[in-house]
Write a structure and sequence with these properties.
451 residues; alpha/beta; 9-stranded mixed beta sheet; 10 helices; 31% helix; globular; binds flavin-adenine dinucleotide
């Protein structure tokens, strides 16, 4: 069958790969000039099957309320005007609140662990088949805590994970430092940690771009620099996809990016048996245009990529700093520090006072926990931190939509929130199986499948 995939993030490209594996004809449409240039570009790099607790939990509403006054808050709700796009934010927030209880939390964790384990196996298969190198470190993920109350709560979370078959161990401060001695000079602040030996880390952008090249080499048509302008449906079925080539002006400016204004004209109308919507946070408005309403809302996060000055003192075990809710992952001779989530629309600015404060918090924290290890100087002091932000396609449950929409021929692979890199390989494999008429081997509620 002929399939058009909308979006060349890690989800779209993994879907393309698995459809090609099953012998299907694939066209990928992407507005950027290459794969993985939006949310899949500079994330926390963790393949984190075992640290998959959704943001929605019993304690989240009160914490979020308190954090609304802090620029550096791990989770920041920035209310929009309650109409137009803003209306979707309020609806999303209400659905998120409905997930903030123990029963929903457990249900969501079970689904995330199931998809994570399936996806980890799929990633290993893909790496073995392609030989892609992407600064992969199979050294586990360690989580450190700076207060006893959080460590006690982590013990309960680790117990829940173990019930679902995940080997997450609680470790003492000394055990943590034995696993990753790089944090020795911060030892006085650490009260303990948890560790999952089977988790890993690696560069999502490098992997996705290399996989996209392999998809092209296997015959996939890669329409980079093309904006999806309209998804057409009629009588409950998909009809066509109108796309426009994005041209570059004399000053290098593009005719279109993420905004409705300045859209390019339609240059091609594509037809196929099936379409897969894998446009990350932009999947929601696109799907609404054909009457499919899914609660996928952008959750802005930030990262900083820093040059390592002392490789022998830099960590190799990917870590999570619980107090700041940030991930620290080594990618070759650089350290990636990433995290925080802001629910405040499609804003991708890095140069506002709020964005600057959140970026600087990341580098400041690296200096605190790994003093002198990386070049954390700001640009004006001769440093070269590469700051970045991206919009996680967040759902209230953190569980993605993988499956067939009510419009025949339109499939969805979107809403991967905080775990899109972890779940990409498996989401692509599972959707390709469903489209082929097979039932993927995991206990997961696929979108559109009978309960
Ligand atoms: C700070 C941060 C840290 C993170 N850390 C981790 C981590 O450690 N581990 C983990 O598993 N996950 C992590 N994530 C989450 C992960 O990065 C995302 O879930 C994942 O990248 C989403 O992939 P995607 O393919 O759905 O979206 P994207 O990568 O955004 O891809 C969607 C693509 O669709 C294209 N597109 C959209 N609309 C159109 C249109 N109209 N026409 C043409 N093209 C279009 C976009 O250009 C884009 O390339 C993190 C995210 C952030 C922001």
């Amino acid at each position: 069958m002929k399939v058009i995939i909308l979006g060349a993030g890690t989800i779209g490209i993994c879907t393309a790969w698995h459809l090609l594996e099953r012998g299907h004809e694939v066209t990928v449409v992407e507005r950027q000039d290459a794969a993985a240039l939006e949310t899949s570009f500079a994330n926390g790099a963790q393949i984190s099957v075992s640290y998959c607790e959704p943001w929605a939990n019993r304690a989240a509403p009160l914490k979020a309320l308190k954090w609304m006054l802090s620029k550096e808050a791990p989770l920041l709700f920035r209310p929009q005007a309650p109409w137009g796009e803003g209306l979707h934010q309020y609806r999303w927030a209400l659905q998120f609140l409905a997930q903030c209880n123990d029963a929903a939390f457990e249900r969501n964790v079970q689904q995330l662990v199931a998809l994570g384990a399936y996806s980890h196996a799929a990633l290993k298969e893909m790496v073995a088949a392609t030989g892609i190198a992407y600064h992969r470190l199979e050294r586990g993920i360690a989580h450190y805590y700076c207060d006893q109350q959080s460590l006690d709560a982590a013990g309960a979370a680790a117990g829940l994970m173990r019930r679902f078959g995940v080997n997450r161990q609680v470790v003492s401060r000394d055990e943590f430092l034995e696993l990753e001695p790089a944090y020795r000079s911060f030892a006085h602040r650490i009260v303990g940690g948890t560790f999952t030996p089977s988790d890993e880390s690696g560069d999502c952008r490098v992997f996705t771009q290399a996989l996209a090249d392999r998809c092209a080499a296997r015959g996939a048509e890669m329409l980079y620099g093309h904006q999806v302008l309209q998804l057409s449906a009629g009588q409950g079925a998909m009809k066509s996809v109108a796309v426009g080539a994005i041209s570059t002006g004399a000053q290098g400016q593009k005719t279109s990016k993420n905004t409705v204004s300045g859209m390019p004209p339609v240059t091609r109308t594509l037809q196929a048996d099936h379409v897969v919507v894998a446009c990350g946070s932009y999947s929601a408005p696109l799907l609404r245009s054909v009457g499919v309403d899914l609660p996928i809302y952008p959750g802005k996060g930030y990262s900083a990529t820093l040059k390592i000055l002392h490789p022998d003192r830099a960590p190799v075990v990917s870590a999570i700093d619980d107090a700041r809710k940030i991930a620290l992952s080594r990618l070759g001779d650089e350290l990636r520090v990433a995290g925080t989530i802001e629910i405040g629309g499609y804003d991708l600015q890095l140069n506002t006072p709020l964005a600057r404060a959140r970026c600087e918090m990341l580098t400041r924290r690296v200096e605190e926990v790994l003093p002198g290890v990386c070049d954390t100087r700001s640009e004006d002091r001769g440093g070269s931190p590469r700051y970045w932000c991206g919009l996680r396609p967040a759902t209230p449950t953190n569980i993605p939509y993988i499956g067939q929409s009510p419009v025949r021929g339109i499939w969805v692979n979107a809403g991967h929130g905080t775990l899109g890199w972890t779940h990409a390989a498996g989401s692509g494999k599972a959707l390709a199986a469903l489209m082929h008429g097979d039932r993927p081997e995991l206990d997961f509620r696929f979108y559109g499948a009978p309960a």
